[in-house]
Amino acid sequence: MISRYSLPEMAELWSDQARYATWTRVEVLASQAQALLGRVPEAALADIRRARVPAAARVAELERERDHEILSFLAAFCEDIPDDSARWVHLGMTSYDLVDTALGHTLARACDLLLQAAARLRGVLADRAVEHWDTVCIGRTHGMHAEPTTFGHKLAGFAFAIDRSVRRLEAARKEVAVGTISGSVGTYALIDPFVEKYVCAELGLGVEPAPSQVVARDRHAQLLQTVATLGACVEQIAIEVRLLSRSEVREVEEPRTAAYQGSSAMPHKRNPTTGERLTGLARLLRGYAGTMLEDVALWHERDLSHSSVERVAMPDALIVAHYQATAAADLVAGLEVFPDRMRAAIDRTNGLAYSSAVLADLLEGGTERERAYRAIQAAANGAISGGDDLGTLLGAEGIDIGPLRPERFLVHHDVIFERLEALRDLGH
Questions:
Q1: Of 95-104, 126-135, 231-240, 259-268, which range is least confident?
Q2: Of residues 15, 68, 263, 305, which has the active-site annotation?
Q3: Which is the catalytic residue, given 3, 142, 247, 268?
Q4: Domains of the chain
Q5: Secondary structure E strands in 220-376
Q6: What's the confidence (pLDDT) of residue 402?
């Protein structure tokens, strides 16, 4: 992923040098396990442990000669090991014993970073939901004015959505944090299963229960679908911010730095560019999720069609998701909220926001439903076209609705608040 949408701690996990460092660790652990079985001499193990991580440039140089990255890595790694000891490296293993076990470790670490970012976003949303729990605003359905709600209620809905994504991501992390060291077609023909058990335990990984030559790719597809779902939840937040930031609405505004410039031609512009960026990144994540589904079905025990896809899709998706969740938390934390404009939007409905409460009152008072609905609808149409207040128009028809306030719609709001407080406690 380009540096513009990368944060260093996540991007570093996917660098060539980091990959070779993890491969080195897997090879050393495998040699340690073999030594415990008595298959690798202790002197050779000492030499293998002392070997340095090969430089990415050296592996690339050797790959131009061999056209095989794993063999090139092993050649570069063994350059730092005496010949008598180097022959014990990679004993009984096939290439993807190394690659997939290392990948499981990298994916687990990447998931941990993403989980931290998503948990922070959940916490920021919950905190600001509590802050604005009583900030009344107009709810909108189909993009149209509906009934009063509160801005805190909106944010609470987003917080719970991110919480569900966190829990899905925790489950997906467990599924991808696996390895296999089982040989060319997964039968352990030339390697003792103890090696796999030892290496995976040291790396904090589970074991693929019925390996072929690779870890099953449905695991990775599940992870990227989970990441895409998190991205879609972030997109929902971003779109709400964008809609509420429009000039004629301006109920919220993205945080701005002193250096902000919104348009090269129009100095007055204050565009919701962060929200737009988060929306665009969600589209990328959905694309990567679909691509990884194509990797699940491989030929027989394996083919190599998944490799080129994963080299792009997995790093890019996790880097983008990490950036997106982090940027979303910053956006929500610094979001400017304008309660007076929110209340004014309710008042500008000329009482239309209270039509459902008026209908309920008439029904409770004994008015037949169709008659009550038609009377309110006719008055509402008059308020929309003529600008008069709904109550005034109904009063002219002999229907006294009395004073109505947004708080009428919030009588059971404490039920949701209790759920929010329980969610908020997860982050404290």
A1: 259-268
A2: 263
A3: 142
A4: 1-91 (1.10.275.10), 96-338+411-428 (1.20.200.10), 352-403 (no CATH)
A5: 252-253, 336-337
A6: 82
